[in-house]
């Protein structure tokens, strides 16, 4: 019997005060991780991209993607993050420099 205002995990049977709490529990404890490390030989898998990126920075610094703009020391775990950095930081800088010289 399920009491009003409670939710039970169908995997482990744990009872929660709300369906939201049960969904959070399920996501954290029972859902398969979806972000595998792509470095050769590494078999780590993470539930979030953020945790994967933290792992890559800490365990595989040689695989980071450094920014190629002179004077910039930023580096990123993925090419997509590097591209986003270049577009947001360095495009704004070039727009600012063009405005100042006009």
UniProtKB/TrEMBL annotation:
| Keywords per UniProt | Metal-binding, Nucleus, Transcription, Transcription regulation, Zinc, Zinc-finger
Q: Where in the cell is it found?
A: Nucleus
Molecular function (Gene Ontology), one example: zinc ion binding
Q: GO terms for biological process?
A: regulation of transcription by RNA polymerase II
InterPro entries from the entry?
A: Zinc_finger_trans_reg, Znf_C2H2_sf, Znf_C2H2_type
Record has Kinase as a keyword: no
List each copy of the C2H2-type domain by range.
7-30
Q: Name one GO cellular component term.
A: nucleus
Q: Which domain of life is it from?
A: Eukaryota
Query: What is the recorded name of this protein?
Result: C2H2-type domain-containing protein
């Amino acid at each position: 019997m399920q009491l009003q205002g409670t939710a039970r995990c169908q995997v482990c049977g744990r009872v929660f005060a709300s369906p939201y709490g049960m969904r959070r529990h399920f996501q954290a404890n029972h859902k398969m991780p979806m972000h595998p490390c792509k470095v050769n030989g590494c078999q780590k898998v993470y539930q979030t991209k953020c945790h994967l990126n933290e792992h890559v920075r800490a365990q595989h610094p040689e695989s980071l993607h450094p920014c190629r703009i002179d004077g910039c020391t930023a580096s990123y775990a993925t090419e997509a993050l590097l591209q986003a950095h270049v577009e947001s930081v360095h495009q704004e800088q070039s727009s600012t420099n063009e405005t100042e010289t006009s």
